[in-house]
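Fig. S4 source data, part A: sequence.
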Amino acid sequence: MADATPLYQTYNRAPLRFERGEGVWLITETGERYLDFAAGVAVTSVGHGNPHVVGALKDQADKVWHLSNLYEVPGQEKLAKRLTDVTFADRVFFTNSGAEALECAIKTARRYHFAKGHPEKFHIITMEGAFHGRTIATIAAGGQEKYLEGFGPKAPGFDQVPFGDLDAVKAAITEATAGILVEPVQGEGGIRPIPVEMLRALRDLCDEHGLLLILDEVQCGVGRTGKLFAHEWAGITPDIMAVAKGIGGGFPLGACLATDEAAYGMKPGTHGSTYGGNPLAMAVGNAVLDVVLAEGFLDHVRDVALVFRQGLASLGDRYPDVIEEVRGEGLMLGMKAKVPNTELLMAMRDEHLLGVPAGDNVIRLLPPLTVTAAEAREGIARIERAAEHIRAKAAATA
């Protein structure tokens, strides 16, 4: 055995051990403070140690943790009602993760056509660069070879087209097509927004061909782009939507939202989850919504995002040898690096600033949505010092 850890060797972990968090800060066991613009990959939506969310969890922990779905769970009814009141959806199924929410979305779409007398309609069109999870079905949906390799034949029923290619989507539609699945903003793929015109065109295509539009808003939802959900920027609604990450603020929670029509085939016994919708998760989810749905909260996200975006654009202008492009919407921003993104990420980490690597040589900047303009500026200052360090290092070796 090469090392002493009993853990699976599936992660390349940074040598950092955090003991506690406060708002947008993480503090190590030795007391070092890091500005957290990773937020657990867009999960810690309302900040570390948010008093309202922590209080809700503690209150519920004193009552009951787990019931299973053999019984009614009042917190589920409450959270589902709040979600359906502010979205397109009529029905909600609660899960523990984004991958499970996507599994439910895929099954819902396939079951819809089955229940309508068309079992042959089970294929779903997806886009290159997508990331929909790590299950056998969701790695097939994502289609990235690095995630598929070594796990046997790719699960059937997923037809992938180039990112942003509407003609390719049209050409991929057959008598076996059940729906179209996309992320309004690709996260893992490199913070790549689908243009609003294309989202509208996908909605029209689904309507024209009797398909279901499935949106993966696991990363870009729950206020991350400055709207409650990213598809709102396009003025469209999906038939099915997968949500997770920010909705739990750090507690494992996901949800599959659907219209009554799309959920037509989901009868008793067709799907289930032992832990999904447990009382602890529901207490936290409701507390997170208290914060995100509060008056002015999304205005705050948009205001801080403007400050952050302008600062990053200025850095790109001054350090074109380090930062090639700034992308994204709201507080889901990405820097496409001119140097290897790992090099820039390490330089940022040296400045005690955390980010997340992504495809296309991008670094994701995903701070808690509670970040202030002053904290955004502090992040920009740290990125500038990181860029200056990289430039000086390149000059010294030239």
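Fig. S4 source data, part B ends here. The chain has two domains: 18-48+296-397, 64-292.
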